[in-house]
Amino acid sequence: KAHPAVDGILLVGTTDSDKLTPVSDYDILIVLSESPVPLHVGFTYIDNRLTDLLFTTVNEVDRIIAEKQQFKPFTYLLSVSRWLQTGNIAFDRTDRLQRAKDVLQSSNLAVTASEYDRYGICFGLNFDYRHNHRMAASNDPVYQTALDLRFCFTINNLFWGYFSLRGILWEGEKKAVRYLEIHDPEFLKLVRQCLAKTDRKVKFKLLENIAEIVTAPAGGLWT
Questions:
Q1: Cα gap 87→16, rounded to integer Å
Q2: For 26-46, b where at least 16 C-beta lie within 10 A, e where not — what string?
Q3: What pTM value is reported for the model?
Q4: Which of 8, 7, 9 is nearest to 33 (CA)?
């Protein structure tokens, strides 16, 4: 607060809430009056707790105030908008953070992906699936290990793709799991089964089922 370059501090997520647990981290958005380098993320410990430092500038906050939620999906300014909308103000030198919160209070920041973005997401998921399908047909131990490694990012991409292709606001893995517990428990059950399986053939079949569900709103899996 004493540093002249700091215009505001915002506590994000569970940082300043009754949901903070012993394993929770701190997330803190720091608004700088100016940033001589493109600084977006920092990393430290506060009170022996892992802490993510998120940075933006007064110019970026002013742009958010002026344009409200008119930002494309998957952009940093849209992320800052979400933090401003839901975070708790700890320090606000020029009342800029409060003005931003007032502007964003009634905004829906779950921006629907454009046709171009949806195509890109669906293409990537199909691309991964077809290569996994090819590699699953091989008995070569090198291919099998490579496939096991690919499973790790494939399931993550599919999980994220479920939300992106449906225009559901992505707020991290934990909130995504809680959302599915309420709105689509069968899909979450399928994901958990896939994560737990060690048999390669069974795991691949579950991944295929997940991929079919995820890509359904954007054309489904390639034939």
A1: 9
A2: bbbbbbbbebeeeeeeeeeee
A3: 0.74
A4: 7
Phi/psi zone of residue 47: left (φ > 0), alpha (ψ -120 to 50 degrees), beta?
A: left
Task: Phi first, then psi: give them for residue 67, nearest 5 degrees.
Answer: -100, -5
Q: What single-letter DSSP state applies at residue 115?
A: H
Cβ–Cβ under 8 Å, residues 75 and 1? no
Name residues whose C-beta falls within 8 Å of residue 13's C-beta, 6 or more positions apart in sequence.
27, 87, 172
Render pLDDT for 126-175 as a digit per residue (tens, 0 to 9): 999 999 999 999 999 999 999 999 999 999 999 999 998 998 877 789 88
- In the three-class reduction of DSSP (H, G, I as helix; E, B as strand; rest coil), residue 12 is classed as strand
| 60: its two tokens | 């970026």
The H or E element spanning position 26 is strand 26-32
In one-letter notation, the amino acid at residue 76 is Y
